[in-house]
Amino acid sequence: MRLMVKPINQYESFPPASIPDESVGIGLRAPHYQEVLETDLNLGWIEVHPENYFGGGAHRHFLSEVRKTYNLSLHAVGLSLGSDAPVSEEHLRRFKELIDIYQPFNVSDHASWSASGNAHLNDLLPLPYTQESLDKLARNVERAQEVFGRKMLIENPSTYLAFKGNEMHEDAFMNRLAEMTGCGILLDLNNIYVQAHNHGYDAWAYVETIEPRHVGEMHLAGHIEQDAGDGVILVDTHSRPVKGDVWDLYAHAVGKIGVVPTLIEWDNDIPDLATLAGEAEKARKILSSLRKQGSYASHHNQIPDQVRDDGVSNAAK
Amino acid sequence: MTGLVMQLNEFQERFKNLMLDDPKALDDPPGDLAAFCAEGDIPLPKRLSVYRNNIVGSLTDLMVATFPVTDKLVGRGFLELMARSFILKNPPEQGCLSLYGEGFAEFVEGFELAKSLPYLPDVARFELALNKAYYAADDAALRAENLAELPPEELGDLKLALRDNVHLVRSRYPLTAIRDFCMAEVQDGTLNIGQGGEMLMVYRSNLEGASVILQADEYLMLEHLGQGEALGAAVESVLNEHESFDFQGFLQKHLSLETFKALAANA
Q1: A286 or A230, higher pLDDT
Q2: Is A139 on the interface with B (CB under 8 A)?
Q3: Which of B92, B136, B204 has the CB atom closest to A122's CB atom?
């Protein structure tokens, strides 16, 4: 018998997950790990960036603990799906390992790019909305879906820059991407609001252009205003409560599109967990109020018959 | 109007180069890129600077978090100055940023304004090792009972690998004393950095990066094992230089520190 060293996988897989459409979740960041485990905040689900869990140690430890209580969505920021180059197979492999273990109900990234040549700029950079960009993004989304063996959701980005050479608007670009690849759309209402302001577009018209059947998740976050020349540029900082106009846009979107799992994101100047949970509670109240008014559109034909006051579906219990 | 057409690879390459250029370049972006971008009420440099600030700002924050001892030693302003300069020359190469900062010690070595602090590169090396230990993959540790199951005659040929969270760091400076001094609530008194160097094993303990000071013989032993040498040959090499090397003591200590990877029988 020869002896050699080989790595031993210590992780056990969780069962596959799905959640009711009415669930409102929060993005979980390291400062809240312990508190999320110790506090009952009526959170519907948890979203994390898979890139923070590619290694082991503390982050994996807490993710495994959190997953015992909550369903997860893995929301990537590092695939750079909009790059001219093919998507990184190594990044896909490491992401897939997490999918296999944690069995998220949603898997997503953005309609943006970060990598060019050997540099991976850690931001969600804007794409010219051309057929060439669409084809390359679709190629990378298809490859990712092939590796993951499942449908992805792709999020509309916040943008500060638009291009004279655009051949279509972003809303049409997102619809076409979904039609070409079978991916879903992760509709970020704050991003729509921010880019609409920055490029002089109508956020409400954007929401109405998006095909409801493609939408699988909605995001909400806070932004800031920065003086810029004679105008103001909105910057998606994820550092503030959700603005009133963005709540209105969310209610409009739920009315037009239907209800899908909703997430509150807060990544900078992170508040205490109760404040974050309070933002989630606002979203639940909006959903509950729309439900009472009967102003939900039917989404995926899966709207449950009865919804409790806290927004949790009876059908899913 | 050639500005209206730009291939995706060309646009991405130009945009990346601009983001990694001197910040003043944003005020006057290259003509073809400027012609490709729409402007509206908000001037183009303001639009570009949002991206630039996101990229450089978040990486700077990341480096401040990775190098807390360096931060205390040189102050936030100076660390940010070094970090920004490092980032523009060494942008991340992958979408996972946990280990970003690799190469910073060598960068600090060549950083003119830091030449008066000769211990700084080793401090950075130490902090990078702690960061790697913190994020290392969860591999299983070798247990004493695993070794006991082996036929004694096979021990000499056994290759013991170091766990992914284990890193060896040596310095002419007292790195752990510097860290303890800097990270104390109050820095009162002085620290003699000429008190002698350290040989360290950096590893993960209770989910945190940790370090232990090693004797010269055990450091050498771990170095040999880390290079893939078999146990028998490694012990022989160490004994050549340190005839009092206590292998049994070494083994017990490092089984209890969980330094080695678990063995897997391979029939």
Answers
A1: A286
A2: no
A3: B92
